[in-house]
């Protein structure tokens, strides 16, 4: 029987975005503010690898995903991604295009599979693949000036990108998701909060602190149990209610075998705040 390698959070050293770690919270910052933080082939691949690696990084309890400067992410870089894809189309390289779409979808799969809750801190433009990254996160905070759009139809593509047709209706409802995915229009902060895309909207100047506080609050909780919650939230979509109840019975029984369950009980009896260890 083999065991998975344990990775130290400070050993993570990406080259296409920023990474920092403190107090159980890892922060991913898309760092091309002069271009509104667009994604490239390389940043897609490196982000995917990061979220796959986080499965083995026990010290990281939660993740904040944000953008440098005044914007979250404007989507795929027009010159570094869209241009080469058009060239591939003109050259008849359909396999290259499919490899790209499967690779971008792989990032969403990696975000969903990593056990840490992901908090997206969204300011300014959040469009295209940037909106997908926000959608694939577990919790979302916006600012009054943030604007979200699934722009794919504006470039002649379907709204079915990186799982949007499956994920977005579950966040904001089928009809609202259909409108955004068909039209590609921008959704302002008030509408995004009203529709449930944002958990809440906060002042621009406090976005970082609010996201950090939310992530820190989760990091102080039972990390193993949070991972179980996240897995169940995703795994039970295709289950019947009865199957989900049975699935959760097994999941909760596993959590009851952890030391954190006993620590919470002992702390309650002693009228103290529990200190969770994630196991």
Task: Chart the SSEs and their pairings.
Layout: E1 18-22, E2 25-30, H1 41-53, E3 62-67, H2 78-90, H3 94-113, E4 118-122, E5 125-127, H4 129-136, E6 139-142, E7 147-149, H5 164-172, H6 174-183, E8 187-188, H7 189-194, E9 200-201, H8 207-219, H9 223-235, H10 241-256, H11 259-269
Parallel strand pairs: 2-3, 3-4, 4-6, 5-7, 6-9
Antiparallel strand pairs: 1-2, 7-8
Name a few traits of the molecule.
three-stranded mixed β-sheet, 279 residues, 2-enoyl-CoA Hydratase, Chain A, domain 1, single chain, alpha/beta, 9 strands
Q: Any idea of the CATH class of the largest domain?
A: Alpha Beta
The overall number of domains is 2
How many strands appear in the DSSP assignment? 9
Measured between the Cα atoms of the first and last residue, the distance is 20 Å
Give average pLDDT, whole number: 94
Low-pLDDT runs of 5+ residues are none
Strand content: 5-15%
Description:
- The protein is an alpha/beta fold and 279 residues long.
- It folds into 2 domains: 9-219, 2-enoyl-CoA Hydratase, Chain A, domain 1 (Alpha-Beta Complex), CATH 3.90.226.10; 223-269.
- It is 47% helix and 13% strand.
- It has helices at 41-53, 78-90, 94-113, 129-136, 164-172, 174-183, 189-194, 207-219, 223-235, 241-256, 259-269; strands at residues 18-22, 25-30, 62-67, 118-122, 125-127, 139-142, 147-149, 187-188, 200-201.
- It has a 6-stranded mixed beta sheet with strand order 1-2-3-4-6-9, with helices on both faces. A 3-stranded mixed beta sheet has the order 5-7-8.
- Helix 5 (164-172) crosses helix 6 (174-183) and helix 9 packs antiparallel against helix 10 (241-256).
- The radius of gyration is 20 Å and the shape is globular.
